[in-house]
Amino acid sequence: ESDTASEISFQFNKHKKTPSIGSHSSDMASVSSVSGSVLSVYSGDFGSVDAQGTVEFALDYDEKNREFQVHVSQCKDLAVVDEKKGRSDPYVKTYLLPDKARMGKRKTSVKKRTVNPIYNEVLRYKIEKMVLLIQKLNLSVWHNDPLGRNSFLGEIEIDLASWDWSNRKLNWYPLKPRSLSAVNGVDHRGVMNLSIKYVPPGSLGKTCPKNPPSGEVHIWVKDVKDLLQLRPSGVDSFVKCYVLPDTSKKSYQKTRVIKRDTNPVFNHTIVYDGFHTEDLKDACVELTVWDHEKLTNHFLGGIRLGLGTGLSYGISVDWMDSTQEEVAFWQEMMAAANEWIEGLLPLRSL
Description:
Immunoglobulin-like; 5-stranded mixed β-sheet; 4-stranded antiparallel β-sheet; Synaptotagmin-like protein 2; repeat; exocytosis; membrane
């Protein structure tokens, strides 16, 4: 029932209590680095300063050059970070949400020793107007620390779909504390429709010709709905799969690319063998969706199926962070051997 089926061996050294992370880094590095940039909208916030003050800016869209422009003018009455010296070194940073990974951040220069910085700078995004209108602008102000321990000073978030584009004047806006939705990465990235099954070692009986000598995890990626539309023509998407902590080539699998479709149907099955029942407590199936382009692929969202304990084979790992829905899905599979478990799980920024 699927267009392709892959079978991968999944083996760990049970004697060494360390994950078998191989030297192959290119694919997994791309997952880690892009996930990092996705989260970097609030990374490096070491300060505990309350947001205060205002920021003056204007928005415009240049139809001729297909360019979104954020005119950052100045800020007033920002919080003081270094109270002993009575100083802040502020700069302004912008993202387009929820597509932080693709569009990247823009930021102004740093103005030193002032809580009333003047910038008069334009931050630019090359983007189609119809794509821009499904984004939100996140504009935040930060204190720049030489050691990278930057402090958050306040933000404002604007829904560009409801923005009055005839308003090109500079206006003042109050800076607000960080929104919980942005801190927790709650943004709609689409949903994945899939089924999973665990076949324990020898569970199919001796008479079955396909009875596995070791356990198998079957992953059937059916389709994804409501992906981010990065271009007017849609998105060219594919799904990557790893069984963590193994990030070697043996663990890596991917589907074919579905072009120009925000609701792609993959119908792709992957089988990982070498699973013992106890491995299910320590392993994590990571499925990530990517937009394919010639020079680089862009992260769209993903899920992690596991127990979400934060531990793998006794070692603390940040990728063992499954949500309640993902944990419940994995537990249901563990409790129902040889049965397909169906699920519809929201993609997240990981």
